Amino acid sequence: MKFGQDHPRRLIHSFKVGVALVLISTLHHFRPSFYAFGDNIMWAVLTVVVVLEFSVGATLGKGLNRMLATFLAGGLGVGTHCLANLSGKKGEAVLTPIFIFLIAGTVTLMRFSPRFKVRYDYGLIIFILTFCLVSLSDEKESEMLEIAHERLLTIIIGSCIAVMVCICICPVWAGEDLHNEIAGNMEKLADFFEGFSDEYFNNSDTTHVVQDKSFMHRYKSVLSSKSSEETMAVLARWEPCHGKFKFHHPWKQYLKIGNQTRVCAYKIEALSAYLLHSKQNPHEVQSMIQESCTIISSECGKTLKESSLGVRHMTKSSMPNQHVANAKNAVESLKSVLRTNPWEGADYVDIIAVAAVASLLIDVVDCIEKICEAIEELASLARFVPSQLLHQGTVQPISKRDDSIHVIIIDEITPRLYE
Amino acid sequence: MKFGQDHPRRLIHSFKVGVALVLISTLHHFRPSFYAFGDNIMWAVLTVVVVLEFSVGATLGKGLNRMLATFLAGGLGVGTHCLANLSGKKGEAVLTPIFIFLIAGTVTLMRFSPRFKVRYDYGLIIFILTFCLVSLSDEKESEMLEIAHERLLTIIIGSCIAVMVCICICPVWAGEDLHNEIAGNMEKLADFFEGFSDEYFNNSDTTHVVQDKSFMHRYKSVLSSKSSEETMAVLARWEPCHGKFKFHHPWKQYLKIGNQTRVCAYKIEALSAYLLHSKQNPHEVQSMIQESCTIISSECGKTLKESSLGVRHMTKSSMPNQHVANAKNAVESLKSVLRTNPWEGADYVDIIAVAAVASLLIDVVDCIEKICEAIEELASLARFVPSQLLHQGTVQPISKRDDSIHVIIIDEITPRLYE
């Protein structure tokens, strides 16, 4: 039961499966007029068990696939059965296996096509299954049509019960999950950048003695998030409009943001290797770049936090761009520090590790700019509304020449939501 | 048909699905004594369609899951049905939905447990399905037992046909695929290192005018290979011994190698960013580290190529370790070059990008050493045989002081295979 308590949504899903099956068994017990199908009722049970998935997108996708595939394969099956019947008893014994071989082989080949694979894989399996069952049926044609009709109806009833239960009881939307995951991943990267300079330049001892640094490793889950994001984007496309998401919400754009976020996470992975050996570098070598690098890292963190907030609340804001501009200014001031030949006389072996951190941080700013561009594209595609700040915060630009750090405080952000 | 020609294995799989269904339809036509099951024969067709998967591991896993789950759920279903029957007609109408709700809910919750999820997910679905079908059945107990028995037999026949066809006609082993994928991924990284110094130090113009550099990007597929490797490792554990793989082949160790390979690929991703801007760096800054970096990069490439060859042929060899030692020597000579203050007077803004490359390459050597350690662990777990070189190649150690590059040629490696 422990893992059920960890995730209330899982507990609710288990409850929903139970409810859907109790609904079917009640129908089964009372047998209302629309549900008097003899032996075929088992198809309704089978459909509910197989179709009812965790997210609405998956349930709708499977339900539609199942209904459409049963309908098409049933029609084709009855057709080939009639054709085989025309050629007599012996002809039928030869023609049926040939039809099955050809259709099943072709459809299996179609399952490998990337285009069908992502959205219609389940439908293609059901197509083969239904076609074979109809072809191998011993019934006469008139009975067959009736059975096919009944089976299709039971599958529609089963699918409808599954979809109804899925949507009516605490629905889990794949699209919303994707939306939150993309925003959450940016926050994870932001956590790293906000902790980076403290950790790298050993400022942490001055504030807290013992600190939990686990938040610095949250970015690691972003490295391998590609496949789960892609799955959610496919499922999201089956979903109708819900909450703040319209019907043609640009789910594919989320994947672009996800890809850019991952590219940034790869750079972080490279940066994090230098955290381990940061104490081996002489402090005087590190301290030359400390100020600019601290600003770059914290501005990157702020950009990501703001962008993530913007995506989460579906609002447009100029704040991320201002933070990016600050980070770029800090890059310029880092470069001007470097031009003064700050490491005169130091050992180059010590220098290269510190130089690598500086260089990677400069690289990271480009990455983050690309994330912002992808988000802006999403904002215009999905028509995000401009954010209205109640306690308007201001970001003071950090000029190249003025090297003092401006503290930027935004008390509270109350975006006017889209809903 | 195009995508079928690209991958003969897919074409063969489609053929196999056709063959399995023709076998079932032939059984269906002739009805031998062991296959006279009335209406329940459709379960055999259903089983073949659903169980026959691309790899042997997946087919065996699904087949065993299906048989075991049907057996257990059938037993439990008959048991609860009898229990419900004891309480009369009205009691049954109340008790059956309660049983269904409890069992289906609990099993659905179990599906979320990571332990069950990876290996028994399909079995748990079939368990819910079978339990519901048996519980909702209208038959008397004696008939029910007979139906349950017949259904189990048809499912066993269907599973056996699927497994037989899968193993007998050009089998695809998930374990072998994982084995080749891990070796192939190392080769992809090796390609990058072998091309890196030419590309970075602009030596390429001297040899070929137009060169296809696409091999430099092959490593990108390694970045997101985690989930496919994990799936294959799970499927591989269902497979019996085959070819050079024994029954308890250490499939989990492959995942460790895969993780280390991915860590190396993340570093490569960071390195590759510097390739784009390599021409902006003044040649005199780059040339200081060219010699050592070229050796490090090429020795890393050779280590990975040799390791990959060793894994592919399941042989132990000391060659990778010798190449790692060479790379380490080159790191030391790079450090001694750096100690001479080579970039006196150059612009530090140019220096940091070059220094970052040097630093990342030093980092990469550690990564590759970890890959070699993981492979050695695999070699001892899976009892790789020492490689017997027919035309024995020698790797001349590159000493710290002697900076000339030794060309290491191994004409041909003919390992005595395990088979």
Automatic annotation (TrEMBL), chains A, B:
Keywords: Ion channel, Ion transport, Membrane, Transmembrane, Transmembrane helix, Transport. One of its GO terms (cellular component) is membrane. Its main location: membrane. It comes from the Eukaryota. It is found in: Membrane. The keyword Metal-binding does not apply. It is a multi-pass membrane protein. Pfam families: ALMT. Coiled coil: none annotated. GO terms for biological process: malate transport; monoatomic ion transmembrane transport. This is Aluminum-activated malate transporter. Belongs to the aromatic acid exporter (TC 2.A.85) family. The chain crosses the membrane at residues 12-30, 42-61, 68-88, 94-113, 120-137, 152-174.
